[in-house]
Amino acid sequence: MKQYDVRIKFLSETMLGSGMAVPGVIDNDIRHDNNGLPYMNAKTFKGHIREQMEFLKKYDKSYRDIDIYGLLGSDDKDSEKKLGKIKFSEVSMPQSVKEALKQAVNNGKLSKSEVLNSITVIYTRTRINEFGVAEAHSLRKERELKKNLMLETKIYTEDLTDEELKMLYESVKALKHIGMHKSKGKGLVECSIEPAKEGGDI
Q1: Do 113 and 36 touch, CB atoms closer than 8 A?
Q2: For the segment 53-71, what is each residue's pLDDT rounded down to a tens digit?
Q3: How many angstroms separate the Cα of 135 from the Cα of each of 127, 128, 143?
Q4: Which of 105, 124, 130, 186 is deepest in the core (most CB within 10 A)?
Q5: pTM, full prediction
Q6: Is 13 helix (H, G, I), strand (E, B) or coil?
């Protein structure tokens, strides 16, 4: 299999919703591991790439004959489950950063909360009604990733045609938003992809 490195730079604060809450502290938390390091499931990132591929196929005639189902496999809407030619790993911080912070937490030099708070910001929001007044019991606290952070993932592929590989590259680079509150200017990203420098073939 071929291996590609994908880098995701966050150009704005980003809410990677986890559906989790910390009672009395956070109503909507980001997804993070036991060391306070943020991550995104491979399945979620694949969904973003699928959206970009479907857009390209619809509006770029050079991709009309490409089988996205064959490339990415089935999604949640498909009753029949099928693996695709392209596979994704979890999106997380660079390995060297993860190892350094994990060691610092394990050695007691940093706490999980200190790691998490250093790369995130907490916002308090209320829902405003049609009269410009805050609705009762609508106060919520949400945690977001700070901008200028860099996350990474790896993509593994079986043999792709030139057009399939080109579509993969363009889909990654076309991805401009991730996460919640896109209409509020959140989740703006810049993505790059290149062949893995080490172990490009596995």
Answers
A1: yes
A2: 999 999 999 999 999 999 9
A3: 6, 6, 21
A4: 186
A5: 0.85
A6: coil
